C-alpha cells in the first residue's frame, strides 16, 4: 500500500479545502441555531454542521462519519448526527460506471451482458451496484468502484492523518487516538479498493460455510470470476429483504429465532475456525432471502484474527457455553504472553481477569452479552500496556450487531449459552452437553 504519512502539495491543498468547508458548515448551523423550532442545543447544531461538511467533502469523509457513528468513541451528539452517513450516497452517472466496467473487462457492456440496468440498486461511498443478466441467463449484480476513487481517497486520508496528528494536542483526541483511527480507516479502505481481494474473501467465505456438512440455510453470493476486474466484482444476484425489515410475527412461517441462530453460528465458525470473518454485518448486509435462507452480503470489510487471539476466543466461548470456567481465559492470556507486560504472577493475573469480568458475569443469565466480554478483554489488555489487534474491536462490534437483532427477533435468547452455535467448534463437549440436558439441536 502507498505510505499514509506522505504530505505534498495535493494533500496540503485538500487540507485547506477540508478545513474551510468544515468551519463554514459548522458556522452556518451555529448561526442559524437561534431560529431552530425544534429546541435542540447548539452542540447538536454544530454536529449537524460537521456532517453537512462530510457530505460535501465526499466519499472519504462519509466513511469517517460512518466510523464516528458506529465506533462508540465519540460524543453522542456527533455520533447521532453521523448516522446520516449510513444512508446511500448519490450514484455516479451510468456512463461513468459503464466506462469503468468496459475499461476493466475489455469489452462493451452489451457484449458482456444480455441486460444491464443503468439505474443502480444501491450506491455507497466507494462503489455502486448494478443489476445485470449474463448471456447464459443467470441473474447477477456488478459492484463497480467510483471512477478515480482510489487517488481521491488516498489524498483525503493523508490530509486527515496529518490533521489527526495535529489534533493530538487536545486531550479528547489524544485519548481517542485519532491518528490510529485514521490508520485503521486507511488500511480498511485500501483493502476495500482492491476488488480482487474482496472477491477472493467472499469466495473463500462461501466455500467454507458448508465445511462441516451443515449450514445449508446460510449463503453468500457466488462470484462470477470471468466478469471481475481490478475495480469490478460480478456475482450472483440474491432476492430478499434486509434484516431490519424482518419482524418477529408469531403468525408468520419464518422462525426468526432460528434464522438469527443460523447466521451467528456460521459467523462464529468463520472467526474461530476458518479465519476471515465478515466485518460489517449491519442490517443492509444481512438479508432474509425469498427462499428462507439467510445471506451475508458485501465483503468490503473483513477481519482475520491471529491464531493466538482465536485461541483466547475459543476459551471464552467454551466458558460461556460449556463449563463456566473463565480461569481458562486468564490462563490462555498468560500462556500466549499477553500478561508478560506486568509483574503479576499467575494467581494475581487470574484475579485481575476475574475482577475485570466479574461485573459482567454477575449479571442474570439473560443479560450476559458476549460483546461486553470481548470489550472487557480489550480494556484489560490496555491496562497491561498490551495492544490487542484491531480485529478484536471489529469482532466485538459485530457481536453487538447480532445481539441487537436477537433482542428484536429472538427475545430471551442468550447468544453465549446456545450449544447449537458451537456444535462444530467443540463437537465432543456439545454432544455430551446435549445428551445430558436432553436438548435437541436444529439440523
Detailed description of the structure:
With 443 residues, the protein is of the alpha+beta class. Helix content is 53%, strand content 9%. The strands form 3 sheets. Strands 1, 2, 3, 4 and 6 form a 5-stranded antiparallel beta sheet that branches. Strands 5-10-9-7 form a 4-stranded mixed beta sheet, covered by helices on one side. Mean pLDDT is 83; it is low at 361-366.
Unreliable sequence segments: 361-366
Shape designation:
globular
> N- to C-terminal separation?
44 Å
Round the Cα radius of gyration to an integer and report it. 23 Å
Helix percentage range: 40-55%
Major beta sheet summary = 5 strands, antiparallel
- Please report the total strand number as a whole number: 11
Number of helices: 17
**Quick check: average pLDDT?**
83
Approximately how much beta-strand content do the residues carry?
5-15%
What order do the SSEs take from the amino end to the carboxyl end, as H and E? HHHHHHEEEEHHHHEEEHEEEEHHHHHH
**Classification by helices and strands:** alpha+beta
